[in-house]
UniProtKB/TrEMBL annotation, chain A:
Possesses two activities: a DNA synthesis (polymerase) and an exonucleolytic activity that degrades single-stranded DNA in the 3' to 5' direction. Has a template-primer preference which is characteristic of a replicative DNA polymerase. Keywords: DNA replication, DNA-binding, DNA-directed DNA polymerase, Exonuclease, Hydrolase, Multifunctional enzyme, Nuclease, Nucleotidyltransferase, Transferase. Belongs to the DNA polymerase delta/II small subunit family. The keyword Translocase does not apply. Residues 63-237 are annotated as: Disordered. Pfam families: DNA_pol_E_B. This is DNA polymerase II small subunit. The keyword Nucleotidyltransferase applies. Its EC number is 2.7.7.7, 3.1.11.1.
TrEMBL record, chain B:
Residues 282-338, 621-650, 701-725 are annotated as: Disordered. It holds the Pfam family PolC_DP2_central. Belongs to the archaeal DNA polymerase II family. GO terms for biological process: DNA catabolic process; DNA-templated DNA replication. InterPro entries: PolC_DP2, PolC_DP2_cat_dom, PolC_DP2_central_dom, PolC_DP2_N. This is DNA polymerase II large subunit. Residues 334-769 form the DNA polymerase II large subunit DP2 central domain. Residues 7-276 form the DNA polymerase II large subunit DP2 N-terminal domain.
Length: 624, 1235
């Protein structure tokens, strides 16, 4: 791998556990063969050194003659992807689907995803492969390259935590598949630049676990990557908390969502309907302003558009009446029906949601590449599971995780301060900045070549009201490791063509509280996410638990249909597909807190869903 | 009852009768909703119970039973009467049970509180799953005011009635049991319970409860599981039910068991499990509970040790006590409690951290304006804490109770301060306090804090070690064989404040501890400091007094003629020590007054200080020193470092030098201030008229026509949408004239002038219904309740003109006449507008029930001086007072007189308000009813002897009181029994007074709001005389003696429970039922005036919250007993942060409101403008209200060195505020940007 840019040199050094002076990096970059120079420097410096200085570099390079050359040290790395794009395509063509999320470790035993993903992949050449490889929690530490297959197969059975009975059966039959998938994974070390040799030689495992005993090196080519962010409020927050700002937000919501519904009904503005005569057919698109049950058990839904409101009656005996249970205030819906004789009310015949089209066909990446979706790390909490995180980071260094090139974190990096009363008594790290420093240290454990993106959550030191802007300069500096991307909550992140909607998930609490248990619950957080997809809005209800900061537009609307919807917050693992959109709530890295115990929430700790960006299949790995 | 008391009550009652007669005449004219006075007089509790319930025959039966049995037993006995139908007129079984339950609650609450009418909604008979019937009692929130015992007993009564009626037991479904558990934890979380039963306990009770407990929803928060149950019609917490189950049944199980045992029909064997505490606790916890009694015993043992030891040291003086292992290593102390500091808010200062040195020193005793949840503070202290304390200010206190009302007592020691020039002085005079206040650098000690013994009894709080004070010493002195009586009679001797020579002589000659005046706080200095000071004294010298800076001249006792020549010389010398900070600090901690001048510290009162430090003062051998002409005594140190025993050095880990001092001093020294009491300000005192918001002159509805001011004049002139002038459409009660059948909303027939009655016509069938006995109006044909209100178009202009004309007033007689928007009462009877006109004219406003009220903080007083009440001895004699407290004839204005139980003292503000009310009443009688005036007052002295109603919130019974004088303090002083009769204590509670005639004339039940709690705070009945047995028994725990015995003080050192010494001190309860029950309320401490100190707390005189907080923090820096960082931290944590966080949260999910029509919107309308009127809509929470404390909070956190955690929380919040309220692209530029 070419080490032509300072950024990559820093990454490489970080991965090996070193920090470096800017001058030192420049020196390495300006060496004739930076890669070699770096190896020399690493060999030269003392094992206990943490920070490589320019002096170290000069000392290391003195013997091997490195002439300081001119300014081409800082090459434009923008060119790199283009040069190598051909390779990328080749690689993806050879891709074989190597695992699916079929046999999930999900506590509820939900098999939905497995089924749907199997369905989805039926057309693919190797679709006979229904396997799951889950829970190799320790494989990265105990196995060597030679016995990876066997060990991991065995451990898949041993440690798949909730699969229990089925697990052993699945285990036996899946063994082959896993072997193969591993083999394939290992066989794809094509673009490698011989870095692996160098890495093996390091032997400085004691300094940084990540560099530890990992027998195989990651062979990634950052030039193949692409990551774009849309709908990020960071730096764009123009609201000043005026009444007009609020009106603007809700109007924007109405505009954007009504657009989704306009083709489906022949709607009229509320004022027009108000002046229609009784008995006529009518249709209206509006934000839900009020929901009341009438004495006789029917539902009165008041809809509001930019002209006014109109009451719509949903009779309890209508087939779609149960949809009223799913309604949240301030979401946008369309109704069709007949006006009453006095034209004072509309009897609803049908109800429409903006929704994800049933025909929606998600985008995929052009090559086999994976993204790890995690959230709710909660560094600083006494309950933060550092060991699980370390295992996760270690695993990312293994060959098996070689294709995991993206790490997307959906908020709550740290436990924060003042989130609830007397929180200081339960903090491991009381200082908020030290919490972020500790988080940054933990982030350094993951391979330096990964692309990392994070959004804030409700524990983070940004405003609580949504949309939340990304971390400020001060915190960005603290979390500079790996040059992570920091964006707002929510953000639509396009990763090699796959649109991933990142949202922390505070509104899930409200959806779960408001909707009937069957439609949304903490045990099936993805079902609550389906509701949000259906409403095409991440936090519709105003005035309840979710807080809104008024901006010039409604950042919380899902204007585009995402391919993947990733949230956290409720500390429960759950995923599934809704109209072919993958919804993932990714658990947490914080063991059960006293508060959670008191309300009987049993969090899913230490899971990392791994998403295949080329197939949108998902494997969940457990690290506890 | 003594004749004297009988005469007193007859006097009151005759004036009451006079007023009643006049009021009946006025009411009889039919101008009011009812043609008679609506506040019945209750002579005793039985009367009140009957009146409050409105069940005829109850009173008689109660009186019959009262003589024979306890009130609880009577309540159960009455069940039989209800079931058999001998009492009450109930047809159905449910009605009978309801009547019995209500009566029981009324009986147990002495017929004063509203719980029996408001707290029990109804009783139903429902069906179990097996088809059998069970009883459901439906409680409401106001059952709270009944208290746990009455709540629990109400259940028992219902069950007893159930069994007598042969109804089956309630069989709870599993979901219902679970629901009880969930609901009670929810309620506990939301509202809080005194006792929070564990889930298992709740389920256990629910499972065994033979009747169903149900109730109406009291909160918005809903349960998450067990919703939508068939037999529970709400998903919210049912507050009344939760209270009854948790604070009633669960908490009072032992009390109920006492009564179930006596009833054959009722058997609740499961109570035993509750009492044993085996439900809902793991075995370990149960064991722990068992084990709890063990330490208590251990305590007693160790206390006994202390006693024997004390005895020992008294006997052998200098001899070492044997060093045995059981000996305690420190003095007896109670553990500090931080509870009172919770929820500290900005602007209300902390006066002392828990048990902190420099805080208030506990002194036992009861001043004449004291007892019943009050705390005596020296008036100089009140001034020195920057006037934050005033008479009546509530403080939250460390012990013995939770809160207390502050009263001024100047017979206790004042505060000690260090002035800017380094001088340390004790300030015993409020005037001096005001003089030096600006120069005070540190308040070293807050002075004494008087708490009466009864407080400890009431709170069942272990006695805290007593300060060594004069009243204890003098008993020790007498016990030591001294001729106390002779000395007392000797005009040359001041026993309470002797000269140093006398004190030394008494201490050494009579084996009696050193006099408290010269007992310094040796327990507050360490042994190390003690030795340091001794060294400093050894190096110091005596110098002539002239050079002492004058302090001693001002404060030092004048040498008595009895003092020897030597002593006279000594008195002219002062002790001079080298000035060093540690020495000065030690002297400060000891509370030794001294002056500083650069190089030296001078102690004017040094003799017993150096004696206590183990120096001999040898005057005889002294020659002349230096060039001074006066012979001065020499100080000889009598001990060296090795002379201190290990026991003395290790006592209290070396932190207390009291034993060291006792070892080296030639006399015994007691602990001067072993108990310090921390406290902080609670509510400020109150004395202001009670106005509705906006204020109301007349309960006459004018809709929206009067604008936001509800201006009747404006409504009379305005035009409505149809162009009609002065006409408004409002809902008022339809009334009918019995004579000519005319329909009107007025109380008199417009045609014939007869009194009209509400007209109930069933909307559905048109039938006219008469109310039944219980006042319910029900159409049996249509099975619906019928109400009288209907829409009327009222010509307000016409009404207004007519009213003015009737009373002969012009509109110019007042500024504005304010009406109400609509009526909230069941029958919506409007008040005659004439009354409003006269109220407006006299500058008084009406409460919701038609009365004029004035609120005051309650304070007790048992003896008064006519002079301090701004009245004369002659006035008092006219009121029936003949002698002072010592039985001497009452001749002089400053004689101390024992107050009678129903006599009250009005604050200046109240007096002024009552004068206006009296004028209003007189105008009303003359100009409206055409009767002679009743009061005819010109100045406030005319109010003396007049009767008022005292009435507390949450109660429904007024108590008749008599005005005897006035005070400048902003409080309502009255006999503690008067407050107790209203069910108040004096810990900062406030309630109101009404002028008697105003209540009689203007109160009507028909004005009371038709909603839960509407009957509370309304005088549904009045007590004309107080029966001490029928008042809140808290008042019975007040001690009424002139001196506490020596044994009591000694018991405090053993941290005894108050019961241990209860027999030694007479309490109010000891005289109940005797002839003495109305008199003999003696006190241990006098105060020169009951209104000393500032009239108003600084909290009320300071303007903005910021000013208050600045003052609070400035004070916290000045007080030695206060940790200012902790105060700042708490203010931020409990006030600023919750405010900021709460407002920010509120901002991001706020409602909006139309500025023009007031319409509220849950969310901003998409139209932008108001959907109703097209007007401008705006936010209800603005940026300004969100971040108003931000800068201050950050500033305070910086200045007071708050924790990094707190600062960071503020930092994060500040960024959030910026993020929400600032445009990223157009950042607010600061001043610096322009430089």
């Amino acid at each position: 791998m070419p080490l032509e840019t300072p950024v990559r040199i820093v990454r490489e050094l970080t991965e090996r556990g070193y920090n470096a002076e800017q001058a030192a990096v420049t020196l390495i970059a300006s060496a004739e063969r930076p890669g070699q120079a770096l190896e020399q420097v690493v060999e030269h410096v003392d094992d206990t050194t943490l920070r490589i200085t320019a002096g170290d570099v000069r000392a290391a390079l003195d013997g091997s003659r490195a002439s300081t050359s001119d300014g081409d040290a800082v090459t434009a790395d923008g060119d790199a992807p283009d040069q190598l794009s051909g390779d990328t395509e080749n690689a993806t063509k050879n891709e074989i689907q190597n695992s699916t999320g079929g046999d999930t470790p999900n506590a509820t035993g939900s098999l939905e995803t497995g089924a749907s993903s199997t369905d989805a992949s039926e057309g693919a050449p190797d679709s006979t492969d229904p396997s799951a490889s889950t829970g190799e929690s320790d494989s990265n530490r105990v196995t060597t390259a030679d016995n990876t297959e066997e060990d991991s197969a065995r451990e898949a059975g041993d440690s798949a935590p909730e699969a229990e009975g089925d697990a052993s059966a699945a285990n036996a039959t899946d063994a082959d598949d896993i072997q193969r998938s591993q083999a394939v994974g290992r066989g794809r070390g094509d673009g490698a630049q011989g870095r692996s040799d160098a890495e093996r030689d390091r032997g400085d495992g004691d300094r940084r676990r990540s560099a530890g005993d990992a027998p195989a090196s990651r062979t990634v080519d950052p030039s193949l990557r692409s990551l774009e962010v849309a709908g990020d409020v960071t730096g764009q927050s123009t609201g000043t908390g005026e009444y007009g700002d609020f009106v603007k937000v809700f109007r924007d919501r109405y505009e954007k969502l009504s657009k989704q519904l306009r083709g489906r009904v022949n709607h009229r503005p509320a004022t027009a309907i108000q002046s229609m005569s009784g008995g006529n057919d009518a249709a209206m698109i509006g934000l839900v302003n009020d929901i009341r049950s009438t004495k006789s058990g029917h539902w009165l839904v008041e809809l509001e558009d930019t002209t006014g409101t109109f009451p719509c009656l949903v009779m309890k005996d209508r087939g779609f009446a149960e949809l009223v249970d799913e309604l949240l205030l301030d979401e946008c819906i369309a109704v069709e029906g007949t006006l009453s004789d006095d034209a004072g009310i509309m009897f609803v015949d049908s109800m429409h949601f903006p929704d994800v089209p049933r025909t929606y066909s998600p985008n995929t990446a052009d090559r086999h590449v994976q993204a790890a979706l995690v959230s709710d790390v909660h560094v600083g909490s006494q309950e933060f599971e550092a060991d699980a995180w370390t295992r996760f980071a270690d695993w990312l260094h293994t060959e098996e995780a070689e294709r995991v090139e993206y790490l997307l974190i959906a908020g709550d990096m740290v436990e924060g301060v003042g989130v609830y009363p007397d929180q200081d008594e339960e903090l491991d790290i009381v200082d908020i900045y030290e919490q972020y420093e500790a988080f940054s240290e933990h982030l350094k454990d993951v391979p330096g070549d990964m692309e990392i993106l994070m959004i804030p959550g409700n524990h983070d030191a940004v405003r609580l009201a949504e949309p939340q802007p990304g971390f400020d300069e001060n915190l960005r500096e603290i979390m500079s490791a790996h040059d992570a991307r920091i964006t707002g909550n929510p953000s639509l992140v396009t990763v090699e063509g796959v649109k991933i909607l990142m949202y922390h998930g505070v509104s899930l609490d409200e959806v779960i509280a408001e909707l009937p248990e069957g439609k949304a619950s903490y045990d099936d957080p993805h079902k609550a996410m389906y509701q949000l997809l259906k409403k095409r809005h991440v936090a519709p209800q105003f005035g309840g638990k979710t807080r809104l900061a008024p901006e010039e537009k409604d950042y919380l609307v899902m204007e585009e249909v995402p391919d993947v919807f990733h949230t956290g917050h409720v500390h429960k693992l759950g995923w599934g597909k809704y109209h072919d959109v993958l919804a993932v709530n990714s658990g947490c890295w914080q063991a059960q807190t006293d508060f959670q115990k008191s309300v009987n929430i049993d969090p899913d700790v230490g899971y990392a869903p791994i998403l295949d960006l080329d197939t949108l299949d998902m494997t969940v790995r457990k690290f506890v | 009852m003594r004749d004297d008391d009988e005469r007193y009550f007859e006097r009151i009652e005759s004036r009451l009768d006079e007023a009643f007669e006049r009021a009946e005449r006025a009411k009889g004219m039919g101008y009011d909703p009812e043609p008679e006075v609506e506040i019945p007089v209750a002579k005793d509790m039985a009367d009140r119970v009957e009146n409050i319930l409105g069940i005829a025959g109850v009173a008689e039966r109660v009186r019959e039973l009262e003589g024979e049995m306890s009130r609880e037993e009577a309540a159960l006995e009455l069940v039989t009467d209800f079931v058999e139908g001998t009492v009450g007129d109930y047809e159905g079984r449910a009605g009978k049970i309801e009547g019995a339950v209500r009566t029981a609650v009324a009986l147990l609450t002495e017929g004063v509180v509203a719980a029996p009418i408001e707290g029990i909604d109804r009783v139903e008979i429902l069906e179990n799953d097996d088809g059998t019937e069970f009883v459901n009692v439906y409680y409401a929130g106001p059952i709270r005011s009944a208290g746990g015992t009455a709540q629990a007993l109400s259940v028992l009564v219902a069950d007893y009635a159930r069994s007598l009626l042969g109804i089956d037991e309630y069989d709870a479904r599993t979901v219902e049991t679970e629901r009880y558990a969930e609901e009670i934890s929810l309620y506990d979380k939301e509202t809080g319970l005194q006792y929070s039963p564990k889930d298992k306990e709740t389920k256990f009770i629910a499972d065994h409860m033979p009747i169903m407990l149900d109730g109406e929803a009291t909160g918005d928060e809903e349960v998450s599981g067990f919703r939508d149950l068939e037999r529970v019609d709400t998903n919210s917490a049912r507050g009344g039910m939760c209270l009854v189950l948790a604070e009633g049944i669960a908490l009072k199980a032992p009390k109920i068991q006492r009564y179930t045992r006596g009833l054959d029909e009722v058997d609740w064997p499961w109570l035993q499990d509750l009492i044993d505490g085996t439900i809902g606790k793991s075995d370990a916890e149960a064991e722990a509970a068992d084990a709890e009694s063990a330490p208590d015993e251990a305590d007693e043992e160790s206390a006994a040790d202390t006693e024997s030891e004390d005895g020992g040291s008294e006997n052998d003086g200098g001899e070492e006590a044997p060093d045995n292992a059981d000996e305690p290593a420190g003095p007896p102390r109670l553990d500090p409690s931080t509870k009172f500091l919770r929820d500290l808010i900005a602007g209300r200062p902390v006066f002392g951290h828990p048990s902190a040195e420099g805080g208030f020193r506990l002194r036992y005793g009861r001043a004449r304006n004291h007892g019943f949840a009050t705390a005596g503070v020296h008036p100089a202290t009140m001034h020195l804490v920057d006037d934050f304390l005033a008479t009546g200010t509530q403080i939250k206190t460390e012990r013995p109770g939770k809160a207390a009302g502050v009263i001024p007592v100047d017979s206790i020691e004042g505060p000690t301060v260090r002035l800017a020039n380094g001088d340390v002085r004790r300030i015993d005079d409020p005037a001096e306090a005001l003089e030096v206040r600006n120069g005070v650098e540190k308040i070293i000690d807050l002075g004494e804090y008087l708490v009466n013994f009864g407080e400890f009894v009431e709170n069942n709080h272990p006695l805290a070690p007593a300060s060594y004070v004069y009243e204890w010493w003098v008993q020790d002195f007498a016990a030591a064989g001294a001729p106390v009586q002779a000395l007392e009679d000797d005009p040359a001797v001041d026993l309470e404040h002797p000269t140093p020579a006398e004190a030394e002589q008494w201490a050494t000659e009579h084996d009696c501890p050193l006099h408290p005046d010269y007992t310094y706080l040796w327990h507050d200095v360490s042994v190390e400091q003690f030795e340091e000071l001794a060294d400093a004294v050894a190096d110091g010298r005596l110098v002539p007094r002239a050079s002492d800076g004058g302090v001693a001249d001002a404060d030092g006792p004048a040498g008595g003629p009895a003092a020897s020549g030597n002593a006279a010389i000594e008195d002219r010398a002062v002790l001079e020590l080298a000035n060093a900070e540690p020495i000065a600090e030690t002297l400060e901690r000891l509370l030794v007054e001294h002056t500083q001048s650069g190089e030296t510290i001078r102690v004017p009162e040094w003799r017993l200080l150096v004696r206590s430090l183990g120096f001999a003062v040898d005057g005889a051998e002294s020659g002349s020193v230096d060039d001074d002409t006066v012979a001065r005594p020499r100080l000889d140190r009598t001990w060296g470092p090795s002379d201190l025993s290990p026991a003395a050095r290790e006592w209290d880990d070396g932190e207390s030098a009291i034993r060291a001092a006792n070892e080296v001093a030639p006399f015994e020294i007691r602990e001067r201030a072993p108990t310090r009491i921390g406290n902080r300000m609670g509510r400020p005192e109150k004395s202001e008229s009670r106005d509705l918001s906006p204020a109301v002159h007349t309960l006459f509805p004018i809709g929206e026509a009067g604008g936001s001011q509800r201006d009747v004049g404006e409504a009379a002139r305005g035009r409505d949408e149809q162009g009609r002038r002065g006409v408004v459409d409002v809902r008022v009660g339809d009334r009918v004239c019995p004579d000519c059948d005319a329909h009107t909303y007025r109380t008199t027939c417009p045609d014939c002038g007869a009194h009209t009655e509400p007209h109930y016509e069933c909307e559905e069938c048109g039938q006219v219904i008469e109310p039944d006995d219980s006042g319910r109006v029900h159409c049996d044909r249509c099975d619906r309740d019928v109400t009288s209100p209907d829409w009327f178009s009222i010509d307000v202009g016409e009404e207004y003109r007519r009213a003015l004309e009737t009373v002969g007033e012009r509109e110019s007689a007042y500024e504005i006449l304010k009406g109400v928007k609509g009526l909230t009462s069941a029958d919506k009877t409007p008040e005659p507008m004439e009354k409003g006109v006269l109220r407006a004219k006299n500058g008084v406003t009406s409460f919701k029930d038609g009365t004029v009220r004035y609120d005051m903080t309650d304070l007790p007083v048992t003896a008064v001086r006519p002079s301090e009440l701004d009245v004369t001895a002659a006035d008092f004699r006219e009121l029936g007072y003949q002698t002072d407290i010592d039985g001497e004839p009452l001749e002089f204005d400053d004689q101390l007189v024992e107050l009678k139980v129903q006599d009250i003292v009005l604050s200046d503000g109240a007096a002024e308000h009552m004068l206006k009310t009296a004028d209003f009443v007189d105008d009303l009688l003359e100009q409206y009813y055409g009767l002679p005036p009743f009061y005819e007052v010109d100045e406030r002295e005319d109010l003396v002897g007049e009767l008022v109603f005292g009435m507390a919130p949450h109660t429904s019974a007024a108590v008749v009181g008599r005005v005897v004088g006035f005070t400048s303090a902003a409080v309502g002083y009255a006999h503690p029994y008067f407050h107790a009769a209203k069910r108040r204590n004096c810990d900062g509670d406030e309630d109101c007074v009404m002028l008697l005639m105003d209540g009689l004339l203007n109160f009507s039940k028909q004005y009371l709001p038709d909603k839960r709690g509407g009957q509370m705070d309304a005088p549904l009945v009045m007590s004309s005389r107080i029966d001490p047995s029928e008042i809140d028994d808290e008042a019975h725990n007040m001690d009424i003696v002139r001196q506490y015995p020596r044994e009591f003080y000694e018991a405090t050192l053993e941290l005894d429970d108050p019961e241990a010494v209860e027999d030694l001190i007479q309490l109010g309860e000891d005289t109940l039922g005797t002839d003495e029950e109305y008199r003999g309320f003696d006190h241990t401490h006098d105060t020169s005036d009951i209104a000393l100190g500032p009239d108003l707390s600084a909290y009320k005189t300071l303007g903005s919250m910021m000013d208050k907080m600045d003052a609070q923090l400035a004070l916290s820096r000045k007080l030695r007993a206060v940790d200012e960082t902790d105060v700042a931290e708490r203010v931020i944590e409990y006030h600023f942060l919750p405010d900021l966080i709460g407002n920010l949260r509120a901002f991001s999910r706020q409602e909006t409101r139309c500025l023009d029509c007031g319409e509220k919107y849950r969310r901003m309308p998409l139209t932008g403008d108001c959907r109703e009127c097209g007007g401008r809509v705006n936010l209800t929470v603005h940026q300004g209200s969100v971040n108003k404390y931000m800068d201050t909070a950050i500033h305070v956190a910086e200045e007071f060195g708050c924790r990094e955690y707190t600062k960071q929380r503020l930092e994060v919040l500040e960024k959030s505020l910026e993020s929400v309220f600032e445009n990223d692209k157009n950042k607010q530029s600061g001043f610096a940007d322009f430089m």
